[in-house]
Amino acid sequence: ARKQRAAAAGAIESVVAAMQAHLQEAGMQEMGCWALANMCFGTDAAGLARKQRAADAGGIEVAVAALQAHSQDAGVQQFGC
What element of type H or E holds 70? Predict the structure, then answer.
């Protein structure tokens, strides 16, 4: 329920925007990847809808950019994959 409320409030899009704005900040990228993964967790219809929402917001591209920009940062690599 919390994940759904967060998504409905625009949290997915806000996290993606913050990650895009602060690509060079490894800590932001790590926590952004963690937040996206947490909000997108689930295989029910709501979870699948959150995954699609994240993809539509640019979540896949920003996660890949984070992984590339911080290839030596274990936290970014852990949460970005």
Answer: none
CA-CA distance, 46 to 30, in Å (whole number)?
A: 24
Separation CA 48–CA 30 (nearest Å): 22
**Which tokens belong to 69?**
């920009």
Check residue 41 and report its DSSP letter.
Answer: -
H helix intervals, the chain: 2-8, 11-21, 26-40, 45-56, 59-69, 74-80
Query: Taking the CA of residue 78 as centre, how many other CA atoms within 13 Å lie in the half-sphere pointing to its CB?
Result: 8
The helix/strand/coil state of 24 is: coil
Write out pLDDT tens, residues 1-53: 899 999 999 999 999 999 999 999 999 999 999 999 999 999 999 999 999 99
Measured in degrees and rounded to the nearest 5, phi and psi for residue 9 equal: -80, -5
